[in-house]
Amino acid sequence: MNVDQADPAELAVLRAAFDVDDGGESALGWEAVRAFEAAHGVVLPEPYRTFVAEITDGSYSGPPEYGLLPVAELPDDWGDDEQERDLSKPFPLTEAWIWEEDSDPSEDSDEVLEQVYNHGSIVLGTDGCAMNWHLIVAGPHRGHVWLISDVGAVPFGAQFGFTTGESGFAGWVRHWAANKPWYDAA
After folding, report:
1. What per-residue confidence (pLDDT) applies to 64?
2. Against a cut of 0.90, is the pTM above it?
3. Choice among 21-25, 84-88, 93-97, 110-114 with the minimum mean pLDDT
4. Which of 6, 20, 63, 142 could form a disulfide with 176 if both were Cys (CB 3.0 to 4.6 A apart)?
5. 133: confidence class by pLDDT, cuts 50, 70, 90
C-alpha cells in the first residue's frame, strides 16, 4: 500500500468500480483538493487523493451501503454537528478496540473514544446504524480504512484478520466491487 504515490493500476480499478462517465464533472479537481488539505492541515493518502481530484467526489453507488460521501461531508446520522473534528491530529488506534466489551476501561477511555471519532480521519460513508467507514489521514495508520461503530473500531485489511481484503482505499473498494462480505475471514 503506497499512500504517497498513486498507482495507475489502482486508479484503473477505482474508475472501473465506480464507472463514472461524467467527464470528471463530479471530481473535485486538484485546486479544490489542495484547498481542502490546506484548510485541514493534511495531505490525503493516495490513491484516494487522486480519486477525489480526478474521478469522483462521492457516489451513490457505494461502497459503503449508502454510498461514498464527498470528502468534506459527514453521514446524516453523525450526531453532534457542533463537535469539532481535527483531521490533522493523529488517529489514536493501531489495533481493533471493542469498547463495549472493555471490562476495565481506563480513565482515559472517554478521551481516546472522542479522538477515535474526531481525529485524523475522513468519513467515507455509512452502512447505517452508526457503522461508519473512515479513511485515516493522520497518524500511524494513515491510508488504512477502519469501520467505526457505536461499539468499537476495527481496521480493514487481511493483515488485521477479519477479512481477506487488501488494506487501503483501493483494497477496500476492490473487495466491495468483488461483492464480498466485508469481514469474510474464517
Report:
1. 87
2. yes
3. 21-25
4. 63
5. very high
